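Quick question, first post here. What does this chain look like in 3D?
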Amino acid sequence: MKRADPLVSILQRPNVRVEDVAILLAKEANPLLGEHALRRALDGLGAEALIRRGLRSTPERDGRILAELLFDELGFDGERDDYFNPDNSYLDKVLIRRKGIPISLSVLTMSIGERAGMEIEGVGFPGHFLVRVGGPDGVYQDPFNGGELLDGHGLRTLAAQFLGAEMALHPSYLEPVDCLTITIRMLANLKNAYRRRGDYARAMLACDHLVELTQAPEHRRDRGLLAHALRTYGAASEDLAAYLEARPNAKDAHVISLALEEARQQAPDVLH
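> Answer (accepted):
Ran it through. Tokens below.
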């Protein structure tokens, strides 16, 4: 009997937080991780932010409190020299190294802001995850760039950087996203980071989660290609065939067909 995916289970909880997902992923990578110690570290930072916030605040002030504490004083920063290092995606590693990518630094910022009583949400901006502090009338913050608060001009500049100058800043880019969407984006980052390193086994673990969470044929294709690279040709054949059945007219259908044919030819020669 197939074991239920732990991410599916955790996302079904009524009050699940992105932090819970991030810690689960970190524990998968490091089974010896002390979850309680990690949460206590977040509690300490949240308590400090709460003290600074006091009884009354505004969205802009909340954003500046987070920027001052996390980025100015503690030195958290976007990792630019080794951007695709998988450590940048794990919350425990981000806390130790004080380096991360936009989404992991956003998850950290959200975790601290929530503890301080702030209204703070993740925003799935294309190519560069952000947070919104203070709800619909609040402010947008860029944790990757020192917690900078972004006005309309800053957001348009960011859109031009990642989408091209000719692209307009569509309102949908600024909408908050739910925990499932953030989880999928974190997993996609991990899959790509490990694949770039040739660590196909860990990339496949991320892909397993993506398949279970989304059932998307494209994730089955990617898992099949990773299985092919790992010479687990039976699994590769199953996933690649499922992709072609679901997407018979895909642009990469011919290439995937060749990979499927090779996997089926190789399968009898591999010891199981």
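The mean pLDDT is 94.
The first helix runs from residue 6 to 11.
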